UniProtKB/TrEMBL annotation:
Enzyme Commission designation: 5.1.1.3
Keyword annotations from UniProtKB, A to Z: Cell shape, Cell wall biogenesis/degradation, Isomerase, Peptidoglycan synthesis
Functional description taken from the UniProt entry: Provides the (R)-glutamate required for cell wall biosynthesis.
Protein name: Glutamate racemase
Entries under PROSITE patterns matching the protein: ASP_GLU_RACEMASE_1 (PS00923)
A molecular-function term among this protein's GO annotations: glutamate racemase activity
Family recorded in the similarity comment: Belongs to the aspartate/glutamate racemases family.
Catalysis performed (reactions): L-glutamate = D-glutamate
Length: 267
């Protein structure tokens, strides 16, 4: 499917979607790194959490959202700002839309290896991400370079999505305790990978639990850099001195929920 926008290529918006508001963490990095770009953000909160759905369901939602963003908004590139949707659907989306630059996300294991000094790295992610063939391949390829302690975090993305602070704190406490000892000493976890875009918005809670010596690693800045590279390579980077920086919010969330989250987390 080609784009339907009357705008010239470089002035068309970049589409971003997630199962909910977690992808706002990616959007925040994108807007910081690409301030002249316009963005359309789609939050599929009415069908969340993706991490606890099957691959077929997530793929179908990803395909429908991509089609809507192309047909209705003429996007010039797409960022799949969801680890679960990336693992379940990014290969399908690229096959269906070969003319569209599509950037996915994955848990930042490679950056974590470079940052870790103890060689013990914790990974918090959804069960769907951790069970995927894409994650297993990444994990196995890097297994000899560090010891990865993997923790599925059932319910955490949903608690963050719902702005349930009490549940978010309780689940973060439960899962970090299960992961083990954090710190900079021998045998301790000194780097924690946030393998779901929602988890970035619990970073203050996690920081209080694991301590200041532990590095938290998310995917926002690497995704922003990759998006810039893909736009430049395609000749689609917005370079106008005037204009740009516009944001449109869409989705299936309850009325006002996405706007409230954007006001809180994009400020």
């Amino acid at each position: 499917m080609g784009d339907t926008s009357p705008l010239p290529g470089a002035r068309r918006p970049v589409g971003v979607f997630d199962s909910g508001v977690g992808g706002l963490s990616i959007l925040r990095a994108l807007r910081a790194g690409l301030p002249r770009e316009d963005f359309v953000y789609f939050s599929d909160g009415g069908h969340a959490p993706y991490g606890e759905r099957g691959d077929a369901y997530v793929a179908a939602r990803s395909q429908a959202i991509t089609q809507e963003l192309r047909a209705q908004h003429g996007i010039k590139a797409l960022v799949v700002a969801c680890n679960t949707a990336t693992t379940a659907a990014v290969h399908l989306l690229r096959a269906e839309h070969p003319d569209l630059p599509i950037i996915g996300v994955e848990p930042a294991l490679k950056p974590a290896i470079a940052l870790s000094r103890t060689g013990r790295i914790g990974i918090m992610a959804t069960r769907g991400t951790l069970a995927s063939a894409k994650f297993r391949a990444l994990h196995e390829a890097l297994a000899g370079q560090a010891e990865f302690i993997v923790q599925p975090c059932d319910g955490l993305a949903d608690a963050i999505q719902s702005a349930d602070a009490t549940k978010t704190i309780a689940l973060c406490d439960q899962y970090t305790r299960t992961l083990g000892s954090f710190g900079s000493g021998n045998g301790q976890i000194d780097t924690l990978v946030l393998g779901c875009t929602h988890y970035t918005f619990a970073s203050d809670v996690l920081r209080a639990l694991v301590g200041p010596q532990v590095t938290l690693v998310d995917t926002g800045e690497p995704v922003a850099r990759q998006t810039r590279q893909r736009l430049e390579a395609a000749g689609l980077l917005a370079t106008d001195e005037a204009g740009g920086g516009q944001l449109r919010l869409l989705g299936t969330d309850r009325p006002g929920a996405l706007e409230a989250a954007a006001a809180r987390w994009l400020a």
